[in-house]
Amino acid sequence: MPATTETILGVFAHVDTTVRALEELKAKGYHDLTVYTPVPVHEIEDVVERDRPVSKVRIFTLLGALTGLASGWIITAWTSLKWGLIVGGKPAMGLPVSPPYVVIMFELMILFGGIATLIGMVTLGRLPRFSTSPSYDPRFSNDRFGVAVHCTPDRAASVREILRAAGAEEVRP
Amino acid sequence: MSEPGSEPRPIAGGAHVADPTFADVNRDVLATLRPPGNKYFAWMCLVALVLSCGFLAWAYQIFYGMGAAGKRTPQMWAMYITTFVFWIGIGHAGTLISAVLYLFRARWRTSIYRAAEAMTIFAVLTAGLFPLIHAGRMWFAYFLLPYPNQRYLWPNFKSPLVWDVFAISTYLSISTVFFIVGLVPDIAALRDASTGWRRRIYAMLSLGWEGSDRQWRHYRRAYGLFAALATPLVLSVHSVVSWDFAMALVPGWHSTLFAPFFVDGAIFSGFAMVLVLVLPMRKAFNLYAYIRDRHLDAMAKLILVTGLVLTYFYLCEAFTSWYSGDHFEKASLFWRLTGTYWWALATMYFCNCVAPLVLFSKKARTNPVILYIVSILVLIGMWFERFNIIVPSLAHDFYPATWGIYVPTITDSTIIIGSFAWFFLLFLGFIKLMPSLSIVEVKETIPAPMKDARHAGHH
Known about the structure:
The structure holds two protein chains of two kinds.
Chain A lengths: L5 E7 L2 H13 L5 E4 L5 H7 L8 H26 L16 H26 L20 E7 L4 H11 L3 E3 L1
Antiparallel strand pairs in A: 1-3, 1-4, 2-3
Helix pairs in contact in A: 1-2, 1-5, 3-4
Chain B lengths: L21 H10 L6 H27 L13 H26 L9 H22 L25 H34 L2 H10 L7 H34 L11 H28 L7 H31 L3 H12 L3 H13 L7 H5 L1 H28 L14 H24 L5 H7 L14
Helix pairs in contact in B: 2-14, 3-4, 3-7, 3-8, 3-13, 4-5, 4-14, 5-6, 5-7, 7-8, 8-9, 8-13, 11-13
């Protein structure tokens, strides 16, 4: 198997032709695809995401939110035990939590959860990057859809054929 | 506005404009970023002038002391905290549109959400100035941060004022993250349509976004999670602000009604501010194809509903203070209705309860002039609502010897007018630097291009 792979890009003007190309490619066993869309489109997502697990961003959110909740509890409990400000004879720190501290815990939960979601989205989406990938075309942020197929050079011709047959406006290289 | 130039300029309301295509959206949004004309600079100059007056007044207050702002016991909160609460409330509509309506899949939100979200951030940035202005010696503003003093005493986390610091910092951070994440794919579109140094800047800001399936997959999931986090946050922020009052024992403040009352009022005033910003924006950028009558209608309906709920809260407030049988509560209410500030209360009732009733008429809901007038009245009414909560309650509390009337001074009035200039300066700058209409979200609501017409009805 040669070490080099080639990337064949098909540019589409319509959603249904893009979906047709994707179905055809998947049926023929090409799974190393990149699909470029100006907006998320259900029809395309249905094909692309069919055999993929759900995005892991939610794990980042959960861990971030739990960290925030724990930090809120720790900072309020630790400071009130360190310098007891006794009001109305109530314990400095109620168990499991004093009601006023719920506000701090809640806000930190949202804050940390949100920041962790951002970190998750950026790292999982392999961002930030300083330049776009070679197969990207500026039209993909406007009104064109792109299917980039990564394959071995000997299969390039058949990939081009599939893309053209599905209705690609342009196939390159 | 599918073909500008080939079609007559749509009249206000623009009911007869064609549906835009994907390419139209890019073109029309990019058109909003063209170098501005003289009118824009004239507005900028006016706003900058007012802002400079505000800064001069602030400098005078710092030099002379808080007496310049008319602060004397018991009126230590006066107009600064009134305006602080007002601006925090304004921000709420933006988060409601970007998070709550996103979760409810209300599709009409897409064409206004970017402007509303920018409004949220600028409103919170404006509100954030007031604790500094109000605290007087603003070079000690870092005292607000949760850290121990030299004797290892931490801030009292049981205090609503500390909650407020946490709530508002979180709100500002999460709103900003939400806003920037929404902007990323749009900035990628700007990058692809620009050249030279602009392209390089946009390339950096877009983080190298290219709309690949991997990026969208994580982006979409993250966006939903942000919305899910922002929804309870927006409800909590104004609740926490309301507890600044409700946790105190002052008659007129000490009420469990305050949290929902504040949140509802915040949404009410926020939508009014969205209309105040979006209506001129629609005219200036000729966005009639995107911001249509049904968008105005939907916003007007929300103003109407929140206005009616607010009226109910006013009745509840009066009823509970009468029904409580508490002498001080009843006296406070009576004095508010009949005392020095009766005109402020009358203004509030008129602007918040009577004026929005016009919106029962469908014609009024889609008429920009009427909507604009109602929105401005609502903003005035909501400012007075906060004034009526703070000033008359503090003026007459338990002990007649401490009663005192607050009279505004030129210094604090100028600072408050300057805060509006600060807000509008930020917004005016924003609409020329960033897409004020979301390219991606607007495209999501128009049918995706299909070759085979049989699929076209799918969306």
